[in-house]
Amino acid sequence: MMHVHQPVDLGISDNVIKLFQLKNGNTVAGRRIEFVKRDTTGPNPELVKRLAQELIVREKVSILVGPDFTPNVLAIAPLVTEAKVPTIITGAATQGIVARSPYYARTFFSVPQPVRPLAEWAYKNGMKKPFVVVADFAPGHDTEATFIKTFSDLGGKVAGTARVPVRSPEFSSYMQRIKDTQPDAVFAFFPIGELVPQFLKAYTDAGLNNGKIRLIGTGDMSDESLIDAAGDAALGIVTAGVYSSAHDSALNKQFVADYAAQYGKTPRVAAGGIAVWDAMRLIYDGLAAQGQGRFDPDKFMAFAKGRSFESPRGPLAIDKNTGDVTQNVYIRRVERRDGVLQNIEFETFKAVLAK
C-alpha cells in the first residue's frame, strides 16, 4: 500500500520486491509469496481504510507493507488490530505511530531519529545561531520541536523559525526573513517531493548559498529520488539520513549493483526503497521461522519484534517491545562523484533509537 510517487515510489518499491524475490526465490517453507499492490494516492485515510479492508477481506492477505503517510497508518490501525494482520510501516515517520497497533512494526525511520544527531553535530561543529525552516504540517512541527530542544539543551539558540505552507509556497519572503536574522546556519525540512528542489533553488537565487551560511537538513532534503532534479543547488548541503546509495559496505555495493543491473542506475533507491527491502527480509525470515503450516500472525509479530540483521543501510534492529526501528544515522554531504550527485557519509551515530 503505497503512493505511486512519494515518499516511497510504488514503481521503485515494486522493483525492490522483484529483486528480492529474484535473489531469494518466491517460496518460503513451502509457502508461495505473492504481492497485491494498491495505490494510496497520498495521505488519504478514508481511501486507505477501504483499500485495507479490501485487501484483508477479499484478497485475504497475511501481511500488509508500506502505509506511507501518517494519516494512513493511523486510519488502518483498528482494522489490522481486529483482523490480526501484521503490518510493516515503510513510509511514515511520525514518532509514536507504531504504538497504535500491536501488529505494527517499522523499517523506515522516526522523525526524531535523524534530527537529534544532526542538532548535536551542528552544535559541536560551531553552529550557534541557526534559522529553522520547516513545512507547515505535523511532521514539520515535530522536526522543528526536536531540533530546537536538542540544540537548546546543548547551549545553542536558534536565530528564528518559519513554517512554510506545503502547497504553492512563495519562498522569496522566507528567504528575506532568513537574511534578516543573520544566522550562521539554516536547518531545513520539507517532505520528499517538489518542495525540496523549489526551496534549494530559492535559497541559491537569494544568494544564501554563498559559503557563509551552512545549510543542513534531514535526509529528505537530499533524497536520492530528487537530488538530480535539484542539481548544483544541492551541492554542499549536509543532511542526516539512514541510507545513502553511496553507503560504503559490501552488502550495499552488491545491492546497488544488482539493482542497477536489473533496472538501470536511475532512479536510485532511497530510504523508502531500502525500508521495503528490509521489510522483505523481515517477512521471509519470519515465515521461515514458522515453518510449514497455517500462518500465525502472533508468532510472526513475536519473531519480528526483537529481530536484528545487517541491511544495505547498516545494522538494523526492531525493538522487541515497541516494534519500532533502531538503526545508524549518518551525517552526509552532497558531493559530485564520478559525475553524479551523491550523499557521502562522513560521521556515524550508531544504534539511534526511534523515540
Automatic annotation (TrEMBL):
Domain Leucine-binding protein: 23-335
Pfam families the UniProt entry points to: Peripla_BP_6 (PF13458)
Keyword Signal carried by entry: yes
Cross-referenced CDD domains: PBP1_RPA0985_benzoate-like
Keyword Cytoplasm: no
Keywords: Plasmid, Signal
Family named by the database record: Belongs to the leucine-binding protein family.
Stated name of the protein: ABC transporter substrate-binding protein
